[in-house]
Amino acid sequence: MSEHTSGRPTPYGHAAATDEPREPGEPQENRRQVLYWRLLARLFDHEEQAALESASLAVVEDIGLPTGLLDPQASVDSIVQRHPELAAEFDKLMVPEPEEDGSRDRAAEVRRAALTSKVLLNVFTSGSGTVTAEQLARWQSDAGWLERALGCRPGELRGGRAGAGNAPAAGGGAGQLAGGGAGHGADGTGAGGVSPTGTGTGGGTTPDLSRLIPVIGPQLGAIEGDLVKRMHLREVLADPGLARQLTPSMSLIEQLLRDKDNLSGVALANAKALIRRFVDEVAEVLRTQVEKASAGALDRSVPPKRVFRNLDLDRTIWKNLTNWSPEEERLYVDRLYYRHTARKTTPQRLIVVVDQSGSMVDSMVNCTILASIFAGLPKVDVHLIAYDTQALDLTPWVHDPFETLLRTQLGGGTDGTAAMALAQPKVAEPRNSAVVWISDFYESWSEPLFESMTALHRSGAKFIPVGSVNSSGRGSVNPWFRERFKSLGTPVISGHIRKLVHELKTFLT
């Protein structure tokens, strides 16, 4: 590494003081290497490496990018505000581009390396010490730019506003991204078979984003959760100006729900406002997913509603074509036709049991909101039970997820038998009942609980065990329960919330 960073000429791609011939594209490759070496150094060691910093500065200046990209204190937002033309370059920045005729645009790779390094460093180097509301908001904004760079929808990596799973420290995700940024493969090689150190492998590789993204999401959730924990949240909430700077997130909502009993006055009002904002945002996303899921067949025995939005204009014109007046060039309509919109549904009872212990906070939030959406559907009787070592019937507030969440007590151990004691009497008609049990199934009384679940399944009720409910689909499930559910014919479904929505819609229709 020393031969690359000891002097100015080599990193910038100018001819070194030697007669040794250079391969085409090698100067650009050296520039790219400098930027990625700086990225790796910054990710794993907060101490500034003077040689790498000066070399990277020269590269950035030489390719016409703003030097603010190298400023650790500058957010991506601030860079884009001063240089609006860069906004388009950050979009899908890390999505591999197909090579044409095996050629590589090495100059473009250097430019992408500089922009990629900025996004990754801002997101994955979160520092230490106390965090202010402004710093949290800036990090969340930079995480949004990372989502754009990976071609994701806003909020998709951090749960689509639908939560992010618990995860280990963020170093692993950063390392994978550093290798997979601007055209790098999962094995650390660059597109076209060139590794970050310039060693050719002879075969082209590109990062598999479908495998990277499920890893990155929980990493971001872990970083965000750490930032929130490092805030003096009570002091921030007591200041309306600072509270307005907070962006609702799953980590923030978890902290607010845990600390709500210690808040009062202005701080409590601001906390409730943030929770309601988050609930509304998640509800909008989940409601769209419910609407997109399969629906029941049209019920033609129910007359269509004679309202304008149901007017079948094409059919109305077709049926009245015989009333066309050529002389007047006018169509006289004798009858209006309307579309059938009513669906065939059977009254169903949906019982949602959710573990509210510390490891299942995002599931508690998502399920509370999801239950309220299904409760708004016709002919669906929704019941909601939350439990840790004790169980709480939240059915009276199921239509209002905000009020439901305020009544939860997050944390503690787990005793599913307490929840089963509340759930079993609600299964009055097994054939028309579904019990969705959401937990990691690390229970205090495993055998008795599983026996009760088996009895529910054999009674004819649909029993749906779910490992967790978040947007990453990740979650640890007790292997003892997993194997027994599989033997019972009711395997634990993936924790991705879209799969649960589909499963529930299938049952209800």
Automatic annotation (TrEMBL):
<feature type="region of interest" description="Disordered">
    <location>
        <begin position="1"/>
        <end position="30"/>
    </location>
</feature>
<feature type="compositionally biased region" description="Basic and acidic residues">
    <location>
        <begin position="17"/>
        <end position="30"/>
    </location>
</feature>
<protein>
    <submittedName>
        <fullName>VWA domain-containing protein</fullName>
    </submittedName>
</protein>
<dbReference type="InterPro" id="IPR008912">
    <property type="entry name" value="Uncharacterised_CoxE"/>
</dbReference>
<feature type="region of interest" description="Disordered">
    <location>
        <begin position="176"/>
        <end position="210"/>
    </location>
</feature>
<feature type="compositionally biased region" description="Gly residues">
    <location>
        <begin position="176"/>
        <end position="205"/>
    </location>
</feature>
<dbReference type="InterPro" id="IPR036465">
    <property type="entry name" value="vWFA_dom_sf"/>
</dbReference>
<dbReference type="Pfam" id="PF05762">
    <property type="entry name" value="VWA_CoxE"/>
</dbReference>
